[in-house]
Write a structure and sequence with these properties.
Length: 289
């Protein structure tokens, strides 16, 4: 038996999370392939549904899947456990072997454990969409960087109105303010730190007027950070549009092509509605029958 380690890194797309292989080559070839998903650094293997090349669905048993019809060697493999997925891409120059061990990196295993914990407490688990797992959501605001009390108060009001408008549109969504940022589901800040601004600068837009970052495992959103900086040019919208826009991003809503929508990607201070499509999206997840 010969052992060979194959390290394969891919920078994009983002969803290819895991590219760690441990290729085991046997001398004797057989007509089936064994797939397994060992957790790196432990003797555990994960069981789940295996999606091969986006079309075939199999389940591992005791950490193993025997994949017959070996001639069609898989390119893309997904291990799916509930709504948690680990993506693998098999490089073209990968040597065909009878035993393909797709290693679950420790950080992926940790994210899976977190997913299991969060899904146990998930009161919206019927939803396959990305969602928060509880209500009310806790939040903090931190505008201490602004020395001008008027600016501070203005920011606080925008957050307050944004939260109220969302809650008004979908009453099962609710918020409660707390003081501890590490405990809070959503933290609101003013200026975007430069390292974050550099990392998330949207293409073609010189001026980022707001930013929402989400932490998610499986399809459960568990932490979000929202930045509502002061505008670098022109007047700030008088309403809570940008805060609401970013808040809705934390709920998984993307940009809208409807110019009336607050999710239109260009802020004009006039496009500010939570349109029907967006309300429906949220109600489907958060309105319990
Ligand atoms: Zn946006």
């Amino acid at each position: 038996m010969a052992h060979r380690f194959c390290d394969y890194k891919k920078t994009s797309p983002q969803e290819i999370i895991s590219n760690e292989y441990n290729e085991v080559i046997y001398e004797d070839k057989t007509d089936y392939l064994t797939l397994s998903f060992p957790v790196n650094g432990s003797d555990r293997s994960l069981d789940g549904e295996v999606i091969i090349d986006n079309s075939s669905y199999y389940n591992t048993t005791n950490g193993k899947l025997y994949f017959y019809n070996y001639s069609s060697y898989p390119n893309k493999i997904v291990l799916k456990m509930g709504n948690f997925r680990i993506f693998y891409e098999v490089p073209e120059n990968f040597n065909r072997t009878n035993n393909l061990r797709l290693i679950v990196p420790p950080q992926e295993y940790e994210r899976y454990q977190k997913y299991l914990l969060l899904s146990k407490k998930d009161i919206f688990k019927e939803s396959s969409k990305d969602h928060w797992n509880h209500m009310p959501l806790t939040y903090t605001t931190n505008f201490s960087e602004y020395k001008d009390q008027k600016i501070k108060d203005g920011k606080e009001l925008k957050i307050k109105y944004a939260l109220e408008r969302l809650q008004g549109a979908v009453p099962s969504i609710s918020f409660v303010r707390i003081l501890d940022e590490t405990e809070a589901d959503i933290n609101f800040y003013g200026e975007i730190p430069s390292r974050i601004r550099e990392a998330y600068r949207p293409e073609g837009h010189a001026n980022t007027i707001g930013l929402a970052l989400r932490n998610i495992t499986g399809n459960i959103i568990y932490k979000a950070t929202v930045y509502i900086p002061l505008p670098t040019e022109g007047e700030e919208c008088p309403s809570s549009d940008i805060a609401l826009h970013e808040l809705l991003h934390t709920f998984g809503l993307g940009h809208s092509t409807d110019y009336k929508s607050v999710m239109w990607d260009t802020a004009s201070c006039t496009n500010n509605e939570i349109v029907k499509e967006e309300k429906d999206f949220l109600e489907k997840i958060y309105l319990k029958p």
